[in-house]
Structures
1.
Amino acid sequence: MTEEKMRFEAEVSRLLDIVVHSLYSNKDIFLRELISNASDACDKLRYEAISNPDMIAGDSEFKIRLMTDNVRNVLTIIDNGIGMNKADLVENLGTIANSGTAKFVEAMTQAKDAKKSVDLIGQFGVGFYSAFMVANKVEVITKKAGDSQAWKWTSDGKGEYTVAETEMDGRGTQITLHLNDDSKDFTEEHRLRHIVKTYSDHIGIPVVLMKGDGDDETLNEASALWTRPKSEITPEQYTEFYKHSSHAFDEPWKTIHYQAEGAIEYTGLLYIPTMRPFDLYDPARKGHLKLYVRKVFITEGADELLPPWLRFVSGVVDSQDLPLNVSREMLQDHPLLTKIKNGLTKKLLSELESSAKKDIEGYNTFWEAFGSVVKEGLYEDYTNRDRILKLARFKSSTVDGWTSLEDYVSRMKEGQKAIYYISGEDVDALRRSPQLEGFDAKGVEVLLLTDPVDEFWMPSVGQFDEKDFKSVTRGGADLNDVKADDSDADKKDDADDKPVSDAELDTLIAAIKIALGTNVKDVRESDRLTSSACCLIADESDMDLRMERLMKQHNRVDDVSTRILEINPKHSLIKKLSDMAKADAKAAILGDAALLLLDQARILEGEALPDPVAFARRLDLVMEKGLGA
């Protein structure tokens, strides 16, 4: 078969240039990444060999070998793992940042500093390509276990690669790096020894330096880190294992290493990251934990180990009680997995509860990154709902930073019976929402919710500490029973602040109803507005405004329902309109003004106007009359 030349996925050549020239401050990282990939390949084959021992017949001792040639400036990394076929090569080495190259390149280009660049690549999992930092050319020769055909992948990292058939003894993968002039020292034994000891000592597969004289040297301890006593593991080793097992580049926020004993026995080494994994919001919601049975790798991302709302947690779980030949299909219904899942979840919740009390700043940073995912548990995990609810943090209309529900309840006003909230896309926009004016005037705190998941868990949960959750954009948010702050109560009534009389307001409301017709469900006086003329709210029995918009975006409802228009009887515009209605309730300009009020309220809600041309015409007319006066 002739050599086949292929181009990388679009924009990859640009990405490789970023990787080579601006990504890493420490070039040693490339070897850690290649050794991690080799270790993963051995783990995968070890699992496959449980059901098919012939796959490792004649070569059952897994190892990763390093070979150097300081004359040709070549470094070779060889493993006897599962290997790759042609399709695997194209998918794994021909497609960088599989989750979205264009998005990755855009993020990398906008990164302002080296640290941010490293953080970003850690999110997109392109560690193999760090090899091009030190190599002018990379050759990969590989043969998948059980296949007879080997393949050779070659690239100089400038936009193209070739794939061709080749010969190879045995299975596995051999990566040959033709080092550039600035990287010749990576053929030196002491340099390789230091890198492996620093970054890969935790790997449970021997990393062997081949010396050619038969006096080969194993460079790492080659025992699974989670099996060692905690007292013998340094923080640096924990961190390096996190980066190895998660293919991450950030520092873990929390490291949890413990052994469960009793009815079931298992060891857990869990990490809570500081940065969001790139696939955190992937619809598949896959986990990041690896399952081992007596140090034999079984599967990665097992949903049976943690609920989806903890999918950002990475690490390993090693069970002593599961059968060694357990299949991935059997895992779904295995009762021991359910017990392990419950144990891991409780352990993580306890760790988060402790951090929320002892490390408030660190916990708030964690919540900033992962709170939107944790809140999925409020909707899905009924068993742990109360504990998650106490862990939840929110932005608020009256306090800076994050607040808990317990703190909110402790600040509730006299006569306040509900926990009020408003939802939208942006915190600053929510703070300016007209629906908040009456609450602000009485000093009533309102939670500001910006995550789409809030629309689902709020109605599902319903209460906290026997206090109902109530949206300020729906009817029924009665503030009459809430005692205002003393500073507000002492204020004298201003003549200009007096509302229109009830009779005049009734006349105006009737005129507006006629003008708007079926465009609104009702028109009523508002007790929530203080400085705005009007706002839209949902009826108490209707869906919340933002929830309905989300449902419409996903084609779950055909159209938004009609809303209630509330008007502020103390506003100067409403007073003038009331005077006009008193003089002539059928005046044409009154109808145009009513439609303008409705469009104004729609704009404040972030909704598109149904007829922008008519809005502009009416606005011109009203402005012309006003200027003429």
2.
Amino acid sequence: MLLRFNVFTKISLLVLLLLIPVLSLYTYSNRESVRVIENEIQSGTTNRLSSFAAQVESNIYQLSLYGVSIGQDSSIQEFQRPDFKGQPYERVKLSVAILEKMNLYNAASKWHSTITLYFPRTGDALSTEYYNTITYQESAFTKPFLKSWEYMGDNFVWYATEPTTAMSNPQSARLITKISFPITHLKTMLNENKVNNSGDPFLFNASQGTIQNSSAHESKIAMLSQKLKDSKLGDRGGFRTKLDNTEYYVSYIKSNSLDWYYVDYVPMQQILSPITSSRNLFYTSIAVLLVMSLAVIFIIYRGVQVPLLQLVRGTKRLSSGDFSVRLNHSGNNEFSLLFGRFNIMAQRIQELIENVYEERLRRREATLKHLQSQINPHFLYNCLFYIKNMARMKNEKAVVAMSLNLGEYFRYITRSENDEATIREELSMVTNYLEIQSLRLERMRFTIDVADDILDKTIARLTLQPIVENAIVHGLEPQAENGEIRIRGYADDNGQYRLIVEDSGVGMSDEDMRELQLKLTKPLDDQMGCGTWNVHQRLMYLFGEEAGLSYSASELGGIQTMIAWSDKTSHKTIE
């Protein structure tokens, strides 16, 4: 009873210990997610507002730059000469030319503006506002001009003088330039900004009010304007505030040209509500999961722990040599089958002990088949990818050739009556493979020279093909010039059979070849090719440790791979 209580308690504590870090990590993750999203909201709002402000300031800067530079125009310089006043025809002709230049600038500018030129020396005035009579009145220019644009009615107005030092005393200027643009340009840009983004931008001035987009929330902007008036605003920044029980993030940037603020605001909670809902759902799920876990623990204890204890006691008696032990289980589940198998095992244990030698042979045969099964997909994948690429390139000849070769390959490997093949059969398969590769590369040639007396010798199926494939992929394909594959085979004076595959590829250093040779004897890892490793392992399993692969430099310039084995080691008895 004490044992069952302890197991149950341990499982319960394990569940609680698993839930506690999950809760802690999720709470921390949720808090960090909220913080990151809040920062992103603030950063995104500020960036959008900065982009909008930059666009407006760019247009205003172009207008201001034109107002400063227009006085340098030669025709305007000539028009304001006092001695030119006595030539009425020339003055009218020159005034028409000046107006054409100002209209051309308006046509090229993004914002249509009204440009008026006052000439204090001659008392003349020229303006692109054709429907109003503009005259120069000296009394209108007694006060110094501001450096920023002034808001007058529904327009923003800015003055420039020539020379620029006359800004503080306009009556001493040779030329006064007045440029104005309507606030409709700003409203249009506010509308475009709102369509492209999720905010509600507007312009704010503490003494002159706001300029809003067409679909602005006037009530919210009115409340927000009051908060902006009550706040001490810098050149740029942001703050959080609540409007109608909803938290907003407000971002503002001061315009140096207009002496107004660009303002935008976004609701925080509306964006964070999915995270809040997800958090509440997670905590509810954890509570339900805890209750269900306790119920499952009890069920598992009754259905699993008790039968396991009975099975442990039976295995202890069996390990002590009591083969008469039998297990009884009244339930109808997997443990009933397990107990039945246990009883059968107890009856046949003696027979299994006597047949241990046969079981070792079967285990070795299973290992060989497992190693060979890893070879087959290696070539299949290459063929399928090649067919796909050739089909995409509309190379019907190559597709047909590869398909026929793939059919021959499957006919070859599906002959399951024997895991071995003759060298003649292996060479036939490799010949087809090389012909396909020659068709694909168009710069490869190959020769096969194998002695007739070893053609009927048996070897593991699919031993030669991975070696040839490696020579092509890693040796010939990386180089630009033509390549050659040479296959030779013979039996030496010591009764060993050898198949040699050489290539004229890029080759490798002696140190790399030694490292590659060493990897053949180690367990397979991600850095070792599956094909060559399997070939080496199968040769060792079939013909003993003296068989296998070895690498050396080839006289062709690439790598020479030698496959060596001996009949005297074939099918060696397992000790």
